[in-house]
Amino acid sequence: MRIDVVSIFPGYFDALDLSLLGRARQRGLIDVRVHDLRDAAHDRHRTVDDTPAGGGAGMVMKPEPWGEMLDGILGSDGADPDPLLIFPSPAGEVFTQRTARSLARERHLVFGCGRYEGIDQRVFDEYSERGRVRLLSIGDYVLNGGEVAAIAMIEAIGRLLPGVVGNPESLVEESHEEEGLLEYPSYTRPAEWRGREVPPVLLSGDHAAVGAWRSEQRIERTRRVRPELLPRELRGEARGRHAAE
Ligand code: 6GU
User: Fold this and answer.
1) Whose CA is nearest to atom 5 of ligand 1?
2) Mutation choice for ligand 1 from 138, 151, 153, 157, CB with most ligand atoms inside 8 A
3) N or C: which end of the chain has fewer CB within 10 A?
4) Please, are residues 92 and 136 in contact by the beta-carbon 8 Å criterion?
5) pLDDT tens figures, 172-211
């Protein structure tokens, strides 16, 4: 997969050199290219923002540097005929594990990271007319810009690409993956630590019992902290139990 990232703070993306994703890049599984938006700003101060039309607080990113930079990326050698342009934005659709799975099937993603109060609307309009554009948010809180959100999305997508995670089975038994439930609690040695024991069932060698315990834990944890994620058939059970208490 090819991923281009446009930002006025390319240094944020040094994080993608590390760990699993860094190794995947070295092995050629992911081709990440980071671009400094200021390289497409040609005045003396390499200006990328200006005051909002109609007045108000903050600054808006000017359309011209975005146009030049995105045209360059979309028209570059070996560019994909149908790339997906992603603008991280708190005003976008929420990015979930389902979104990550869907984006992991793309050949070419381009992330446009805005700062200040946002990017001139005409940039979205222009590229929506020419191809596919999505505004994506990573949750209901406000960041200073799209960089940290883009890193989160790239990591979530990148680890789903074939060969990036060593043991593909570890991708399945995770929060949000199996039936959209949260993950069960994990333990390792020693069997007792500071008077706290590993649940005996996990040391029993009874694989069926271990499986049943983990499944129960996932449902109980999801019911406790994220009840809205529980499938309908498991929600009914909770109501019955609480009514009996
Ligand atoms: Cl994608 N961008 C910004 N600036 N803030 C956010 C976000 C994105 N997602 C949640 N908050």
Assistant:
1) 143
2) 138
3) C
4) yes
5) 778 887 788 999 999 999 999 999 999 999 999 999 999 9
